[in-house]
Amino acid sequence: MAGVDIHVFDFDFDLTFCVLLMNADGTIYHTYGGRDWTDPQSHLSMKAFVDVLRKTVREHEAYSADPRPPKKRPKLTVERIPPMAERIRKGKQPTCYHCHTVHDMLHEDRKQRGAWKRADTWIWPDPVEVGLRLDKEKQAVVRAVEAKSAAARAGIRPTDRLTSLGGRRVLTFGDVQRVLDEAPHGATSIPVTWMRAEGEKRGALRLPAQWKEADPRVYAWRPSKWPLSPKPGFGGRELKRGELTKLGLAEDAFAFRVGYVVTWGPNAHTGRNARKAGIRKGDIVTSIGGKVDFDSVSHFHAWFRLTQKAGSKVEIVRYRKGKKAVLTMDVIE
Prior knowledge:
Layout: E1 18-22, E2 28-33, H1 46-65, H2 82-89, H3 100-112, E3 132-134, E4 142-145, H4 150-154, E5 161-165, E6 168-169, H5 173-182, E7 188-196, E8 199-207, H6 216-219, E9 234-238, H7 241-246, E10 256-261, H8 268-277, E11 284-288, H9 297-307, E12 313-320, E13 323-330
Antiparallel strand pairs: 1-2, 3-4, 5-6, 5-7, 7-8, 9-10, 10-11, 11-12, 12-13
């Protein structure tokens, strides 16, 4: 991301793969890329990519006859975001600027300026937040509609093909996410059109306040979770089946071995807090706050950051040398 103008090349910087189909004037026609929480390749398909390329060529020809360039904004690169600029000034320039570094630096900058809001957490919402599950190959086609969701209330059904959302033509999972990302966090209504066998349908996604707030399971894949607070101060790797059964746990149970307790950097206080509660490297954790159904350690980290409140306490079930103990840890910023 070194030198890339993030005001022009605007996408979900948590992704490992994204393609912007755009005009040289900065107009973004479509965004190909995006994923759900189950699989990094959940919406990556060569067939879908070729389809959007072909359709965008025709859009580009039409746009060229009547261009509407976006308003230009001052150039902003990750190196110019104040916290990164300060690191560079101190000689701590990273060897590589990862895409997710953009989100990390924007988060740090807002925190330093006292401008960070909880609503800033919820970026590029998964379409499931409005009740839509989209097909992988034909990404404007609705594969399923969540019961009692905004999409269901709007009248959208499985096999319908979305044509526009928020007044913008949509062809891809990423297109839908872009419109949702730009919509307000509070109560709002987003116009939507779709095609069904009998013709075009129109409606609106009527969304309540805080509609962007995702379940930790949906959010867990995002690198954006790491800067969020509160932090547990420790982590590790999940146990395999054989390791679980040795502990007398079910093969499909969740547990992880503590591989590190944070004792370095600006978050060292969180590791000291975990150690004070009794957590040590090598311990096996099977439950946090009474929750045992984590999908992964990443899910645990997202859950802790998104659900726990500083000033409260959380119970942790841990094993050490086969002996079970229930610890109580303070939740701190």
